[in-house]
Amino acid sequence: MSAAPSLEAITASKAYGGVQALDNASFSALPGEVHALVGENGAGKSTLIKVLGGRVRPDSGTIRIDGAKVVHGGPNDAHLLGCWTVFQELTLLPWMSVAENLLLRREPRNALGLTSPRRLVAAAGRVLEKFGITEIDPRALIEDLPLAARQVIEIVRALSHEPRILLLDEPTSALMERETAWLFAQIRRLRATGTTIVFTSHRWHEVETIADRITVFRGGRDVGSFTTLAEEEAVTLMTGQRVETFYPPLPAAPSARADAMLSVADLAGGRLAGVSFTLHQGEILGVGGLAGHGHRELFLMLFGAERPHAGRILLRGREVRLRSPRGAIRNGIALVPEDRKTEGLLLPLSVRDNLTLAVLDRLSRFGVIGRAAERAQAARLMARLAVRAPNAAIPVGTLSGGNQQKVLLGRWLLADCPILLFYDVTRGVDVATKHEIYELMMELARSGSAILFYSSDALELAHLAHRVLVLREGRIAAELPALDLTAEQIVAAAMRERLAA
Amino acid sequence: MPPRAARRSLLAHAIARNIGLVLVIFLLVFSIFLYGLIYGLTEGRLPGGFELTSTVNNTMPLVLAAMAQTLVVLTRGLDLSVGGVVDLANALGAISLGATPARMALASAFILLAGAGLGLVNGILVAYGRLQPILVTLATLSIYQGLAIRILPQPGGAVPEGYTALLTNPSVPAALLYVVLLGLFWTAFRRSQAGIAIIAIGNDEGAAAANGINPLRAKLLAYTLSGFFAAAAGLFLVATATAGDATTGNGYTLTSIVAVVLGGVSLFGGRGSAIGAMLGAFVTTMIVNILFFAHIDPLYQSFYEGAFLVIAVVLAEGLGRFVRKRR
Amino acid sequence: MTAKLDRRNLLSLGLAGALALPVSARAAAGKKLKIALSNSYIGNKWRIEMENLFKAALLMEPFAAEIEGSWFNSGNDVSKQSQQFSNLIAERVDAIVLNAASPTGLDGIIKQATDRGILVVSFDNVVTAPSALKVNTDQFAFGRMGAEFVAKKIGGKGNVIMVTGVAGTHVDLDRNKGAESIWAEHPDIKVVSRYTGMWDSATAERNTAAALPSLPPIDGIWCQGGTDGVLKAFIAAGRKLPPTAGEAENGFRKFLTGYMGHQVDGISIGQPPFLSVISLELARRALKGDYPKKNITIPFPYVTSETVKVGETVFPDLPDSFFADFTDAGPHATVKICVDAALDGKACAGRLDVDLPSA
Question: Comparing C-alpha atoms, which of A224, A191, A168, A296 is closest to residue A28?
């Protein structure tokens, strides 16, 4: 601790409406240090990063860079000081190309100050190459890229500025193993050159792998900085209470005679090259594997949002054609997606409206919604799910990510759908909320729901599923039973490595 | 490294990026063909120089209004005051153009600047007042129309013949030159810092701001340029008419939006090309021509115009989706 | 009558000699003349009647035999009307009968038409292009006539309201000026309110209802259009109906004979929808070379509470919004045509003789 901190926040506070996002929080990071910020969603990590990166002006408190007090007038001021940020909600422009995004405001220009698409693409290609990215076409529109590729572009853009201070807010939440490894290599390279790196993550093993120092946040405040910290201790610090068992016990696997709720035969389309399986009542069937191997298509087809090219879907032995999500819901199939903002929730609507959206038919009479009934239902659910919101009338968009996810879960809980499709529901969700979601899943399974559960976190699958199907190149590469299943086995199957049977 | 990012051919990229433009070119070619066919069948000859010239001259004001509308629509706004600015420029032009070339140049410059100023007012209200563009420009539309009537209470005034000859020469389709110049302007603007900023804020204002783009400045510029081009539309309108009328520009608010939509510019902002919108303006004129020579009952004309518009928009959307899926 | 016609023929012959009236090539070749109606707005009853009368005339002699007619609407979109005009030029019509969207907006294209030898006859919303012939009424006289009537009825003293038309049009301006020239002669008449009725009964009714509560007792109404709406607003407000000068809406004329329990002492002056027929006749005869190419101003058809006649100038079975001045009446009528022509564009029995003013 001999070096002077390169980046400091001293008693910074920031409130949004009535919510105190940062409450006299202090933080400091050294040159050449990788500093992890951990805490539940809503603990103030993202706000601190925004304050440090000049995106948000604190209500009070001081920011120092290299010991000198700075007042950011906007991101540009931070950039001038060599401080670049990768925001959690990406700041890419969807209908512009990768090249335009990467080189925004520093496009190669001719004497007239005009850029040319050709030079722009060439320059962007060089940037991508410099950071070892060869598979993203600089001419592609951001909109056409998968989330992981977008996240990579966002990171490359910050890296290409040769930052002295790099702030990364949940950079890995959208990344798969390979990309995470790439990011860590970049972080190590920067660390060697004396760059200060601050990042947040909900994945403890990542924090353990890369962080030199860990600062824990809770309720808008820093509650301690550590060079070493055990996961259990961290969880205790983050939640303020001891978490007994992180993964709740699985209910007993359904017997072979249990009702087949959902059967899929040779389903194909998009990246999905033909899969068959059966999901039983009370079963949690895990689906694993690397992203881009057909999981997404599988889930979207089962939810009626995409049409299969071939194959059949049977509900309780009866063949159905799912033409729309509406049709799927009517057939008792609900989807809880990964990307809460775009796929599941209507952010400007209130928590209550979002909860009751799928069951308005039931709450309304002659097309008029029974407000009292809606209110009561919503209140009960919010209590049951422990949604942290001041009241049911505030827009969902103002809640933290984990709480948004809970609202979405609650919606399907209310709808009583017997078949639930969970698609990477815990991505980007904090520890305590993750735990709550796990508990909820178990409860749903015990009460007889059949759950198809995809997760990018192999550990989660290993602990929370009765069986795990591993998809590779659109087919089922392996079916692994839950007993003594390890994350390594799932990853190995996904990576086409020979399994020690 | 990322899971899927297949490379497409250069052409496929160009088409996917400019699907709106591709479609409006197709529409224009198709409608010109249809027009030629119907004209040939009913008149027993093909359209010639007069038809081309009058079509171009009649469309010029809309071409400029479409350019004006595009700039604002790209920022995810809507400029309803286009018609009001056209009216004002029309009225001012009718009373001030004078007879000498110097006077005409001076008056034109003043009118264009006045238009830019009116646009700036919109921009200030939208950017700094944080008001909805549609509300601001609806209000200023009435104000600008009112001012125009005040300046020219009854139709009249006169435009010198030389001015008409320069802008919308009735004998040769020289105005096509202006279309080409506008196309060049757009191409350059799209590649300039300012143009990129306007498109970026239409993509996602928050993200653009996080990238250091000043959304306020970009909006001010978009609305100011919109006013400028709307005023130019007014000058072309008064030049074709050869005399002023402070109400004839009203229609351009709506028709400019139609041209923009036909031209493949997204009303959600951030996507599209002013060249498409300008071609869209020509498509609307071709629709009038086709319906004319097809001798459609006048009472059903607006029905067919509307149907054509719906089909064009649906086609654009469908084609766009098709191209996207087929990567 | 014969003598009169003879004299006119003589006169026009004389004029033809003096001006060397060009005779259309088609007319000379004995082919049908191509005459098109280019109308702008078609969204009100007046315009529909105007167009129906044009269509009916084309089905009746002498027009049916001599003319190949067509009609086009453009709405209030000047550039669209201008484009249709260009297409008519391309179609090489002999004459265009025009109700313009703007008095000046088509001047450029009109000049191109007349330069190519096409006769342009403009009526109602007449254009300023010097090369176009104009057929119209004297709108200044409209304003004066109504105001004079009101002034006389109220003894040159009292409160009047003016319900004006669509701002920015010649018609509106001229009618207002005409009225004001009369008020200027009567210093005791006070115009207590002046607002637009947009020549539309519903708008006039709404605006009147909004204005009335703040107004003193009204002794006279001078209205450009939407007259029945104004009176209905008076009734709704519980006011007595004062002497009224208004347009030729059937609804207003019903009040002249007694309607809704009220009888109004008034004058109903009409901008006649048959202006389109007069313009057609002018085009036909000018193309044949038997009438000079000159502007025509026709007198307004009008009725008062004393002269209004059920079935002839007011129609209890037809809607209030119908314009009851679709035909002229009386011994010196310019056009006499049946109600079916105005309602449906159907031909009436017999020939359609249009009595143009002596040349």
Answer: A224
In 10 A of CB A393, how many CB atoms? Answer: 12
Band of the pLDDT at A494, cuts 50, 70, 90? Answer: low
Q: In what order do the strands lie in the sheet with A19-29?
A: A19-29, A7-16, A60-65, A68-70
What pLDDT digit, counting tens, does each position of A232-269 carry? 788 778 776 554 456 788 888 887 777 888 999 999 88
CA distance A465 to B29: 59
Parts of chain A belonging to CATH 3.40.50.300: 7-239, 260-494
Q: Which chains does chain A touch, 3 or more C-beta pairs < 8 A?
A: B
Q: Is residue C11 over pLDDT 50?
A: no
Q: Which residue of B has its CA nearest to A50?
A: B210
Q: Please check whether residue A312 is in contact with residue A264, taking contact to mean a CB–CB distance below 8 angstroms.
A: yes
The pairing of strands A19-29 and A310-315 is unpaired
C2-137+272-298+334-344 maps to CATH 3.40.50.2300: yes
Search chain B and give the residue with CA nearest A86: B210
Average pLDDT over residues A207-213: 92
ipTM given for this complex: 0.89
Interface residues from chain C to B (CB-CB < 8 Å) = 39, 42, 70-73, 75-80, 82-84, 86-87, 89-91, 101-109, 111-112, 128, 167-170, 173
Interatomic CA distance for residues C214 and C210, integer angstroms:
9
How would you classify the pairing of strands C266-269 and C302-304?
antiparallel
Class of domain A260-494: alpha beta
Tell me if there are at least 3 CB pairs under 8 Å linking chains B and A.
Answer: yes
Whether A9 contacts A28, CB under 8 Å: yes
User: Using CA atoms, how far apart are residues B135 and C85, in angstroms rounded to an integer?
Assistant: 36
Cβ–Cβ gap B154/C78 under 8 Å:
no
| Mean pLDDT, chain A, integer | 82
CATH class of A7-239: alpha beta
Amino acid letter at A147? L
Q: Where do the H-state alpha helices sit in chain B?
A: 10-17, 19-43, 49-74, 82-96, 101-127, 133-151, 161-168, 176-190, 193-203, 205-210, 215-241, 252-262, 274-293, 298-325
Between the CA of residue B99 and those of A11, B103, B106, what are the distances in Å? 71, 7, 11
Largest CA distance in chain B: 69
Q: pLDDT of C243-301, one tens digit each?
A: 999 999 999 999 999 888 888 999 999 889 999 999 999 999 999 988 999 999 988 88
Give the architecture-level CATH label for domain C139-269.
3-Layer(aba) Sandwich (3.40)
Distance CA B322, CA B23 (A): 13
Of C76, C79, C107, the CB nearest to B58: C79
Q: Which has more pLDDT, C201 or B313?
A: C201
Least CA distance to B205: which residue of chain A?
A: A93
Phi, psi (deg, nearest 5) at residue A145: -95, 150
C254 to chain B, closest Cα gap in Å: 30
User: What is d(CA C148, CA C154) in angstroms, rounded to the nearest whole number?
Assistant: 10
Residue intervals of chain C classified under CATH 3.40.50.2300 are 2-137+272-298+334-344, 139-269
pLDDT band at B17 (very low <50, low <70, confident <90, very high): confident
Q: Quote the pTM value.
A: 0.78
Query: Rounded CA gap, B71 and B24, in Å?
Result: 18
* Phi, psi dihedral angles at B80 (to 5 degrees): -80, -10
> For chain C, how many helices (H) and strands (E)?
13, 12
d(CA C229, CA C225): 9
Q: Which residue has the tokens 């020469």?
A: B169
Pick the closest to residue C135 from C116, C111, C119 (CA basis). C119
How many angstroms away from the CA of B326 is the closest CA of chain C?
40
